[in-house]
Amino acid sequence: MHEVEIIYSGPKIPVPLSIKSSKDTYEILKEVYDHRKMDFKEMFYVLLINHANYCLGVSQIGLGATSGVAVNVKEIFQLALKSNASKIVVSHNHPSGNLNPSEADKSITRKIKAGCEALDMTLLDHVIITSGGYTSFADEGML
Fold first, then answer.
1. 3-state DSSP helix/strand/coil percent for the chain, to nearest 5?
2. Which domain covers residue 71, as residue numbers?
């Protein structure tokens, strides 16, 4: 008989990082994104957050091309469930430097939000970053 086991080793962040605003999220993301590729390839990340708003970890979900990145939504929720996250923030970059969300960005956000609601989780934000700044769906009232 085969057994499925979920194992999570816990956060490897020496000092827990608290997320209280989109600026806190942006500060974490600036350290995570590969700045050598920021203007050339789209990257998609998920921040896994506990009930007390501490970041448990960050994981890259996808690495794409200049004009898009494939997002495996199931992988986002696999990671969230495995880490016992109660909240998540998703993020991707726009190599073009344009901080405005595309229709595809809005669509994937709705899909992730619906998944969060089904799993009793909260999508705190979707942050789009460029080498020059960021846009927060939460700050813009788009969640």
1. 25, 30, 45
2. 17-136
Residue 78 lies in a domain: yes
The number of domains in the chain is 1
pTM here? 0.88
Taking only the tens place, the pLDDT of each residue in 34-75 is 989 989 999 999 999 999 999 998 999 998 888 889 999 999
d(CA 110, CA 101): 13
CB-based burial label for 130 (10 Å; 0-12, 13-18, 19+) = middle
Whether 143 maps to a domain, the answer reads: no
Number of Cβ within a 10 Å radius of residue 58: 20
Q: How far apart are CA 55 and CA 62, in angstroms?
A: 20
CATH code of residue 130: 3.40.140.10
